[in-house]
Amino acid sequence: MKPGLPLLATLAIAALTVTGCATSTPPPGYDYSSFRAEAPRSILILPTLNNTINVDAPDYFLSTLSAPFAERGYYVFPAHMVKSTLEESGLADPGPLYEADTTRLGELFGCDMALYVAINRWDSQYVVLATQTTVEFEYQLRSCQTNETMWTHTEAMTYSPQASSSGNPLADLVAQAVVAAMEKAAPNYMPLARQANLYAVNRGGRGLPAGPYLPESYLADIEAFSSTTDAPPAQQPDEAITLN
């Protein structure tokens, strides 16, 4: 006897414990010679450059940037104050702003570094009962004194929710279709964006050396963030996101 629809629905709901894996690949080491020589203390976060078709991505993503860089030991200028000041100065469009000389920002704000971030992916794709949400960001820190690029990094993360198994193949199929549809309808961008920022900033050998406002780590991480590209990247475990 085949189970009726009410029973299938019950089994599907029982299986609807959603988990997913946000994965990221460690990049190669980085040369921190210029960064160490300049010893920056402050970061100006600029409005993000949106290379996607999602018009809401820049404002959402901008709200995730300040905390990880501040927690790394740098003074971070309030992002929305910076955005308003740039608009008043005729520098509202990120395109021309990203092409301009960074020393102009140093004169305007008195910052040590300016953070430029391009959003290259912010999308959710549905393929055969599965939804994959992907974000990809390109970070660049430039000196506000010399216009030199002192740090670059690219971080991409993907999340695909999975329904837990109930032991009933048909119910599991229904449950997986439900969680895929839910993710497609309301993609889980913000946890991915926050995770990408944390990975970008904190990776040993490829992230950002501790700043002066993190005294327990400042100048104590020279081995992890060396001045040669031979520094091995720290192996970071994949992080799991669980939605309740």
List keywords for this structure.
single chain; alpha/beta; six-stranded mixed sheet; 9 helices; about 25% strand; disordered N terminus
Count of DSSP helices?
A: 9
Structural class: alpha/beta
Q: What letter string, H or E per element, gives the SSE order?
A: HEHEEHHEHHHEEEEHHE
- Name the beta content range: 15-25%
Radius of gyration: 21 Å
Into which percent range does the helicity of residues fall?
25-40%
Low-pLDDT runs: 1-20, 171-176, 178-186, 229-244
Could you say which overall geometry the principal axes of the C-alpha atoms support? globular
Question: Care to describe what's here?
Answer:
There is one protein chain. With 244 residues, the protein is α/β, with parallel strands linked by helices. It is 34% helix and 24% strand. It has helices at 5-14, 33-38, 57-62, 66-71, 79-88, 94-99, 103-109, 169-185, 189-202; strands at 18-22, 42-45, 49-50, 75-76, 113-126, 131-143, 149-159, 161-163, 239-243. The strands form two sheets. Strands 2, 3, 4, 5, 6 and 7 form a six-stranded mixed β-sheet that branches. It has a three-stranded antiparallel β-sheet with strand order 8-1-9. The longest helix is centred in the last third of the chain and has 17 residues, at 169-185. It is globular and about 50 Å long. The relative contact order is 0.24.
